[in-house]
User: Which sequence fits this backbone?
């Protein structure tokens, strides 16, 4: 699992936020589009594409896309 | 051992009744316009049928049962078993099935009792009725499954209010040496508080604070007599448990997945159900959805989906169904069932 691939798939979950907004250091929970629905969409993507289950605590603990990637990778 | 078979049972008919009053999630004030659009697209629920004050789940089931008995040509005196699955009974005491036995003019020799289950309740109910009919050759049964979940939610809670809808259903079953249903039923009480109404029972009895509202976060306020649902935990539960439960049932009973005509899931959340469908590698046309028009009707979603989406197929030939219910408890299960030309009236609205 590569960070770049993770960021691309993470970005594809969003409708209104352009792909260029997603970088390793992006604080995704501060994005206007982030909310409970986006959390479910991201959870479903990580389950389907990476075979990992993440919790609401994981999402809260991950400040950035890169830190979420590390949490997923270490599951 | 949760995988088992119940022989000598056939489903003869399925009916469903929903309230006429409909609410549109596009009007739900706690969500912004873009949030509503994303909710409807992702969760899949637009319209919710809401019972008027004074209308209970048993009233909706009574309507569905009356129509089904009439269309089947069954006399009330022929019904030997009535099981009512609900989490919204008429009273704390007595059980509502007794009231339904009286209102349907069923015999005093009829077995009648309630079962307190929600999302998994239809599948569990089939297994309970099937188990009873085993020792009753020639017997007929009614499985009544319904809830008025809208009465249990806070309209100030955006995590539950746009989800739930009301319905009552009736399923007619008969002892028959031609029929068999296979089940895989499971429970995990460790997560009992993922979906819960914490107050008003005997662990946390009604008191002067029960009706006080607490704001848990912006847009999520409720009192102790209203339902709490941990959406992410339940979402992960569905992703984790449902597909393996179904796969185990099919494997142990030697059922080819491709031979199944329809997978009818509890209508919880479109994103979750589509994830489960993909895990099962089931074709989209084999997985009907009713949640856009009927929402999450708790225990009733499976028969509501059969009536609203598969009525013609159910009436006109043989159908092989995989049913799967999952949620509150946590409780979940699947059933494999074959039907032939059953009675399936159009959705009733009252």
Assistant:
């Amino acid at each position: 699992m590569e960070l770049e691939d993770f960021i691309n798939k993470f970005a594809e979950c969003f409708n209104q936020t352009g792909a260029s907004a997603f970088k390793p250091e992006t604080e995704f929970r501060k994005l206007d589009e982030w909310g409970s629905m986006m959390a479910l969409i991201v959870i479903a993507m990580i389950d389907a594409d990476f075979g990992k289950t993440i919790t609401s605590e994981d999402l809260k603990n991950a400040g950035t896309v890169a830190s979420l990637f590390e949490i997923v990778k270490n599951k | 051992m949760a995988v088992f078979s119940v022989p000598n049972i056939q489903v003869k008919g399925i009916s469903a009744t929903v309230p006429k009053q409909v609410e549109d999630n596009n009007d739900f004030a706690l969500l912004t316009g873009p949030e509503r659009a994303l909710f409807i697209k992702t969760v899949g629920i637009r319209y919710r049928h809401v019972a008027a004050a004074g209308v209970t789940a048993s009233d909706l089931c009574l309507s569905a049962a009356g129509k089904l008995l009439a269309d089947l040509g069954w006399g009330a005196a022929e019904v030997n078993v009535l099981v009512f699955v609900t989490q919204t009974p008429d009273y704390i005491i007595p059980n509502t099935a007794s009231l339904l036995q009286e209102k349907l003019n069923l015999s005093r020799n009829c077995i009648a009792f309630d079962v307190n289950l929600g999302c998994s309740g239809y599948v569990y109910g089939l297994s309970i009725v099937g188990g009873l009919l085993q020792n009753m050759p020639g017997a007929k049964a009614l499985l009544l499954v319904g809830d008025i979940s809208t009465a249990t939610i806070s309209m100030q809670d955006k995590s539950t209010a746009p989800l739930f809808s009301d319905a009552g259903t009736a399923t007619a079953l008969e002892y028959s040496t031609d029929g068999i249903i296979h089940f895989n039923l499971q429970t995990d009480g460790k997560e009992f508080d993922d979906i819960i109404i914490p107050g008003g029972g005997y662990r946390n009895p009604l008191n002067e604070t029960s009706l006080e509202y607490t704001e848990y976060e912006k847009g999520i306020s409720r009192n102790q007599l209203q339902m709490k649902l941990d959406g992410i935990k339940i979402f992960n539960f569905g992703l984790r448990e449902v597909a393996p439960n179904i796969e185990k049932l099919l494997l142990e009973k030697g059922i080819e997945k491709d031979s199944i005509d329809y997978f009818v899931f509890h209508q919880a959340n479109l994103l979750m159900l589509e994830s489960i469908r993909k895990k099962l590698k089931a074709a989209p046309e084999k997985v009907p959805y009713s949640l856009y028009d009927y929402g999450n009707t708790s225990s009733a979603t499976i028969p509501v989906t059969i009536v609203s989406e598969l009525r013609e197929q159910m009436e006109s030939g043989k159908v092989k169904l995989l049913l799967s219910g999952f949620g509150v408890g946590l409780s979940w299960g699947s059933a494999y069932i074959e039907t032939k030309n059953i009675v399936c009236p159009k959705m009733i609205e009252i």
Summary: Chain A is about 55% helix and 0% strand. The mean pLDDT of chain A is 92.
